[in-house]
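The methods section describes the discrete structure representation at length, but only in general terms. What matters is that the chain and its backbone geometry are given together, residue for residue. For illustration, here is how one protein appears when written out as sequence plus structure tokens:
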Amino acid sequence: MDFPPVRDGDELRLSASTYLTYRQCPATALAKLEGIYGPETLPGFRGNLAHRVFARHLREGPIAAGDLQRVCREEIGSSALNYKLGPLGMKPSGLQRVIGEVQELYERFRRFPTEGFRGAEVALDVEATPGVNLVGSVDAVFDDSGGVKLVDWKTNELGSAAEQLAFYALVWTLQEGTPPVAVEAVSVGSGERFVAHPDAADLAATARDVAAVVDGIRSVWASGGTGERRGGPWCRYCGMLDGCEEGQAAVDLLD
């Protein structure tokens, strides 16, 4: 498929996370592109650790209950999670609680079928149009009905799963030359599922949405601005909350 034309501008690497963030609050997405992130959070740390455990299970097989604590510590020590312990102020007792919560999630995860497993944490990176790379990481890829199914694990609610999976389906199609037959999000915590079967019209619609985000980012860059600010639940963990009236108002309402 062809990616829609976009305005000229600086090179851009657009991830699924930044794409979704821009649709919530353009200013936050632009700040992330400049390296300004919100504070580390305990749910984020727990979710990232759980995802690493899930990937290890898929690649190497089930993890015995007595080995899970060792595996968690190995995954922390060998990844960027190790550098988040300090900002989180994580004490040994707190880390022990997190590992216990990850173990509960893993006990649910290991009941999921793994037939047709092809790869875990599969990297996506394609130049959709000159100067624009779309990137991401799919939690798992499975063979399914003569094609592939892209799966995203969630440790909490499904959230913006439909938009995230649509982005992954588009990037997969641009990179591999053929669309996935299915995309699926699964909440390990609640058992909720979202499944879609993207067709040509779906992919074209997502491509137009992504192109609009590219145009929006490049337009702000060209003007030297910071982007529109929109308040919402996401403001609580925004790196620009201090000094943002919209964000402060949203957090006050949430509190």
About this structure: The chain has a mean pLDDT of 92. The first strand starts at residue 12 and ends at 15. The chain has two domains: 12-36+115-221, 42-109.
